[in-house]
Specification:
Blueprint lengths: L2 H8 L14 H4 L14 E5 L3 H13 L4 H13 L21 E6 L5 E7 L5 H11 L4 E3 H10 L10 H14 L13 E7 L2 E8 L20 E4 L3 E7 L1 H7 L1 H10 L4 H17 L9 E7 L4 E7 L3 E6 L2 E6 L2 E3 L7
Parallel strand pairs: 3-4, 10-13
Antiparallel strand pairs: 1-5, 1-11, 2-3, 2-6, 5-6, 7-8, 8-9, 9-10, 11-12
Helix pairs in contact: 3-4, 4-5, 9-10
Length: about 325
């Protein structure tokens, strides 16, 4: 008998005997009670303080009778156009070579998504991302290809590097010796989730990690990392150091945990605990921030973060407010 036949006989694959464990129905699948869709509530959540103005615009769009997708697009266009916000769009901090490169993504309640990354000289990557979703058969366009597409769609070019951001970059070059630093301070993506007329949508836009390596792309334009939406369940958007969000597909995980019956807050906590145990606990001296906003189709919502110090904006029932998010780990004091 050949070695192969002896092996097959040993594991029971000869003679019709297949030694597989019997799985109960509950081990294969389980009944999932989807959250009830709330068609009467209009709600918007955004990351960070600049989410307040974004929320205000998004809610105005909703109250005009437009779609949730319209709202989350037009909402984040506000910080994209604001030169005082140094982490998004026009006026965003450049990469280490002095180029402002933008990433963005958008997703609707039907599972459609569009994304662009490494875009230069166009102020509203979120709108280009939506065009990718609606006008092409693709999900992601990058770099020169995304810029060519933007030009074909009629978007106007604009120099995104403001004098203030240029001066900050020049100071950084002297101090850093051209070494990119990943820390708690140099990121602040805006991510948004919204619910209106029973439809959920999400958007995310950023100029990325300040003084990153040229060509670096973070989590923001990656579906399942920077953002994710499921029209039956809910949506989630992330901010923070994108490399860790990419490695754990955080927003997809949050939505799937909500599918399994967890509340938005419980889902955020579970996802952040995974990041904490895999990365932060193993090197606690290198702290990094991850912040989340999550919303289910019933209108339940949450904001949560890995470290203290994260804020999110919530607008519902006519009130737009900034909330200090609960967190897993107290942030270490700054060194003087």
């Amino acid at each position: 008998m050949t070695n192969r036949r002896r092996f097959l006989k040993k594991i029971g694959l000869l003679g019709g005997a297949i030694a597989l464990p019997i799985l109960s129905k509950s081990a294969i699948t389980h009944d999932i009670k989807l959250p009830k869709v709330n068609t009467n509530k209009s709600i918007v959540l955004s990351t960070w303080e600049h989410g307040l103005a974004a929320n205000q615009k998004a809610m105005e769009v909703m109250l005009q009778g437009k779609s949730t997708l319209d709202a989350v697009e037009q909402g984040v266009m506000v910080p994209e156009a604001d030169p005082l916000i140094r982490s998004v769009g026009y006026g965003g901090r450049p990469d280490r070579d002095g180029y402002v490169t933008l990433d963005a993504a958008i997703m609707d309640n039907k599972g459609n998504a569009g994304s662009v990354c490494f875009v230069q000289n166009y102020m509203h990557p979120i709108s280009i991302a939506r065009k990718v979703m609606e006008e092409t058969k693709h999900v992601i366009l990058s770099g020169e290809g995304a810029e060519q597409f933007a030009h074909e769609q009629g978007f106007e070019k604009k120099d995104l590097l403001t004098e203030k951001s240029k001066k900050s970059w020049e100071k950084w070059k002297i101090k850093s010796q051209y070494k990119t630093e990943v820390n708690i301070e140099n990121h602040d993506t805006i991510g948004m989730v919204g619910l209106h007329n029973g439809e959920i949508a999400t958007s995310c836009t950023t100029s990325g990690l300040a003084y990153k390596m040229h060509g670096r792309v973070g989590d923001s334009p990656i579906i399942g990392a920077g953002l994710f939406a499921d029209g039956e369940i809910g949506a989630c958007a992330a901010t923070g150091v994108g490399e860790y969000v990419l490695k754990t597909q955080t927003t997809f995980l949050v939505v799937e945990l909500m599918r399994q019956g967890k509340s938005p807050e419980e889902a955020c906590i579970s996802a952040l605990q995974r990041i904490k145990s895999k990365y932060l606990d193993k090197n606690s001296s290198k702290q990094f921030q991850i912040g989340l906003v999550a919303l289910n189709v019933n209108g339940e919502y949450a904001g949560y973060s890995l470290l203290s110090g994260y804020q999110y904006a919530i607008m519902v029932n006519g009130e737009n407010k900034l909330i200090d998010a609960p967190y897993l780990v107290k942030r270490a004091p700054k060194h003087k």
